Amino acid sequence: MTLTDAADRAGWYDRLFAAIYEPFLALGERRGMAARRRDLLAGAVGSVLEIGAGTGLNLPHYPAAVTGLTVSEPNAAMRAVLRRRLSADAVSRRGGGTSAVSRRGGGTSAVSRRGDGTGAVSRRRDGTGAVLHRQVGVDAIQISPAAAEALPFPDGTFDTVVSTLVLCTVEDPVAAVAEVRRVLRPGGRFLVLEHVRGEHGSRLERRQHRFAGPWEKFAAGCRCDRATAEILGDAGFDGTALRRERWAGMPSIVAPLVVGSLPVAGRGAG
Length: 270
Ligand SMILES: C[S@@+](CC[C@H](N)C(=O)[O-])C[C@H]1O[C@@H](n2cnc3c(N)ncnc32)[C@H](O)[C@@H]1O
Description:
Keywords: Methyltransferase, Transferase, Ubiquinone
Order of helices and strands: HHEEHEEEEEEHEHHEE
Bound molecules: S-adenosylmethionine
Radius of gyration: 18 Å
Oligomer: single chain
CATH architecture: 3-Layer(aba) Sandwich
CATH class: Alpha Beta
Structural class: alpha/beta
InterPro entries: Methyltransf_11 (IPR013216), SAM-dependent_MTases_sf (IPR029063), Thiol_S-MT (IPR052356)
Distance between the termini: 33 Å
Strand content: 15-25%
Number of domains: 1
Number of helices: 6
Organism: Cryptosporangium arvum DSM 44712
Pfam families: Methyltransf_11
Protein name: Methylase involved in ubiquinone/menaquinone biosynthesis
Helix content: 25-40%
CATH superfamily: Vaccinia Virus protein VP39
Shape: globular
Strand order of the largest sheet: 3-4-7-2-1-8-9-11-10
């Protein structure tokens, strides 16, 4: 069974977690996370892949410089919420006669826009109460069920890959980061916003280790003690480009963040 097959069989807890995800994050989003998403995604350009897109909290923040957007999400319950958000948004634009929702074979769906095609703006209330204000200059947003460890895209497909709060949860973060490198074109950027393990030897790190098991059960596989910054560095991404920040409004074990726009060197380099 592949990772995607496994995730496609969304169990009751997956469905519950998808339903409570945004309410659980709401305080953190208000206390800086939504602004952090917006600032990071301002750097997205061209053809963009977002891995582990979850319920789609990043969607309102993509800028007009994005010309194509693929959002991958292996969890069927999360994907259902994501699809509803995109569909509702497309339907809300239909009044202007410029958009349509279509479904393709192989489980990939697209929310596509016709007519003016670029830079159109729509507004609706989304699940977090924020205004969904999309200005993505794209013809179609593709939804893929792919797991980050096995991305079904050729080498060098994307100008930008986005990962927010995902590398804590993927089963094999080393494989996932290697896949991100592979699908980024030389000179492309990996936009990263991840919670990470606390400083080595700190009380926080000990607390993270202590609560890692129960937290993983509660948060659908999330490891609060994952050394994601080191994994990125080992994969050849420039760790010095990562800023250390704190996620306010959330439990301390997930508070330490790394944020950054990481350049990818030519394949075969470092
Ligand atoms: C904490 S949520 C983050 C969702 C979203 N990126 C955000 O910023 O709100 C982690 C997401 O990673 C997804 N995920 C889990 N395993 C994955 C994998 N192997 N590849 C890609 N995404 C995965 C989960 O289904 C979930 O949607």
